[in-house]
Amino acid sequence: MGNIDPVINVRSLRVDRGGTTVLHGLDLTVPDRQVVGLLGPSGSGKTTLMRALVGVQQITDGEVEVLGRAAGDPVLRRRVGYVTQSPSVYADLSVTENLRYFATILGAGPRDVARVTDAVDLARHARRRVGTLSGGERSRVSLAAALLGDPQLLVLDEPTVGLDPVLRRDLWDLFARLRDAGTSLLVSSHVMDEATRCDRLLLLRDGRLLADDTLPGLLERTGAHDVEHAFLRLVEEPAGPDGAAAVRSPRHLGGEAS
Amino acid sequence: MSMHDAREASTLAAGTAVDHEHAAAASRAPRALSPGLTFATAGRVLRQIRNDPRTIALLVVLPCVLLGLIAWMFDGTPVLDQFGPILVGLFPMIIMFLVTSVTTLRERQSGTLERLMTMPLGKGDFVGGYALAFALLATVQALVVVAFAVWVCGMDVAGPVGLVVLVAVLDAILGSCLGLAASALARSEFQAVQLMPVVLFPQLITCGLLMPRDEMPAVLEAISRVLPLTYGVSALQDVAAGGGFADVRGAVAVIVGFILGAIVLGTLTLRRRTA
C-alpha cells in the first residue's frame, strides 16, 4: 500500500471554455494521503480543475494524471469519488434510494449504504425524500454517495458550503479520519478559514496557481498572519504588503464559485 | 453526532484498507453496457416517477381526455373509427417525446449525469435504462388509451384491436427514444420543449394524416419515407381499414428499426467529457 507517487500530477494544463482561457497551463501535484485544500475566489478555475481531474472536462492542452493513470481512464471510475458543487442526487428519491442506486453502480452492498449514511449523520433521514431536505442535508447525501465503495481519492467541490459551523467541523473531522484511513482528498473552498484544516494548500486565482505549500510554509513566506492576508500579499506581490488592502479584505473571497 | 464515535472511525478505516488491497481485483474496465446496471437505472427512473403520482396521472389521463374530446366532437360520424386508431398511436408518441426529453435534460442539469459519467456506468446502461423505463410507461399508457377508445368512446376497429395496441406501444416507445436522442441537442429546458416542433411537426405534416401521401408533391413524399411516424400512421390506417398483421409487419419492422437507431444515436451523442 506504500504509494509514494503523487495521487494527482498535472502538467501544463490549459482549459478554454467559451472562447476564454480558464486554466493557463497549470502545473501541480497532490501528495498521497493528505487533505489538500484548493482555495480560491469564485471564478478562479477550481471547479474546472476538479472536472478535469475526474475526466469530465474537455481539456485544451496538457496532461492530467490521477493515481498513475490518465484522468478519465475507466479504471479510475471506481477509485475516485467526486462531489459536484451543487448536490448531484435525485431530489425525487429518498436518501437510501439514491445511495442504493449509486452503490449498485459501484458494486457496493447495503452495508456500505448504511456506513456512508452514518458517516454523514443522515441515518435519521434515510427514508426521507431528498427534495424535502435542507440544502446542507442534500449536500451531505451527495457527499455520502461519493464515499460509497471506499475510493482512494476524493475530489470534493465546496462540500462545506452553507453548512453550520458544527457540521462543518464534523465534516472536516471526517475528512481527517478518511485521510488517516489511507484516502487522499482534494477539497475546494472559497472560505479561507478552512485552510487550517488542510495538510497542504493550493491557492488558485484567475486560472493560475499562486501557491502550493503547507499553511505554515505559506505564512512564513508571505509574512502574513492568516491565509486571507497571505493570498492578498501574493496577489499584490510586486507592490509589496499593503495595509489598506488588508482592511478592505472581505472575510470570504467570493460568493459562489464557478 | 455519530462522526465523533471512535469505533465508527475505525470501521471506516478498516473498510478503506480492505478496499485498497482489493482495488486491483475491482479495477476491471467497465463495459458500455451491462444488463445489471441497465436494469438498475431503469428501476431508479421508475422509482422517481412512482414518487410523482401527478406525472403518472397526466401520462395516462391526458391522451384519454384528448381522444374523448375528438370522439365527442365527431359523435355520430365514422370519423372516430377512421382516425381514432391513428390518434391512439399519435398522442402517446408526442407525450412520451416531451416527457423523456425533459426528464433526461433534468438529469443533465442537476449534475447527476456528470456524477454518473465519473462512475463505472456505461453510456449504454444510461440510455438503455431510460429507454426501458419509458417503454414500460409507454406500454401502460398505450394500453389504457386503446381500452378507453374502444370501451368508452366506442371506437370500432375493422382490423384486430391487438395490432392497434402493438403499433401504439411501439409509437410511444419511439417517441421516448426520439426524446432521448433529441435531449442530447438541448442545452436548456426551453430548447428541449422547442425540439418537439422541430422533430415531430415535420413528421405530423408529411405522415399522411393531413393528405394522403400519394397525392403529395414528390419531394414531400420522399421526405415522408425517411421519417418514422409515416410508418406508424400507415400501419394504423391499414388496421383501421381491416388489414391484418401481414399488411403491417413491414411498417412495424421499420418502427422497431427507428427505435433501435434512436437508442444508438442517444448513446453516441452522450459525452463523458463536456466543454
Walk me through the topology.
The complex is a heterodimer of chains A (258) and B (275).
Chain A: E1 8-17, E2 20-30, E3 35-39, H1 46-53, E4 61-66, E5 69-70, H2 76-79, E6 80-83, H3 95-106, H4 110-119, H5 135-147, E7 153-157, H6 165-180, E8 184-189, E9 200-205, E10 208-213, H7 215-222, H8 227-235, H9 243-248
Parallel strand pairs in A: 3-8, 3-9, 6-7, 7-8
Antiparallel strand pairs in A: 1-2, 1-4, 4-5, 9-10
Chain B: H1 6-22, H2 35-50, H3 53-73, H4 79-109, H5 112-117, H6 123-152, H7 161-183, H8 189-206, H9 218-225, H10 228-240, H11 245-269
Overview of this structure, please?
The complex is a heterodimer of chains A (258) and B (275). By secondary structure, chain A is of the alpha/beta class. Chain A has one domain: Rossmann fold (3-Layer(aba) Sandwich). Chain A contains nine helices and ten strands. In chain A, the strands form two sheets. In chain A, strands 6-7-8-3-9-10 form a six-stranded mixed β-sheet, sandwiched between helices. Chain A has a four-stranded antiparallel β-sheet with strand order 2-1-4-5, with helices on one face. In chain A, helix 3 crosses helix 4 and helix 4 crosses helix 5. The relative contact order of chain A is 0.18. Chain B is globular and about 55 Å long. The N terminus of chain B is likely disordered. Chain B has one domain. In chain B, helix 2 crosses helix 6. Chain B has eleven helices and no strands. Chain B has 275 residues and is an all-alpha fold. Chains A and B meet through helix 2, helix 3, helix 4 and helix 6 of A and helix 1, helix 2 and helix 5 of B.
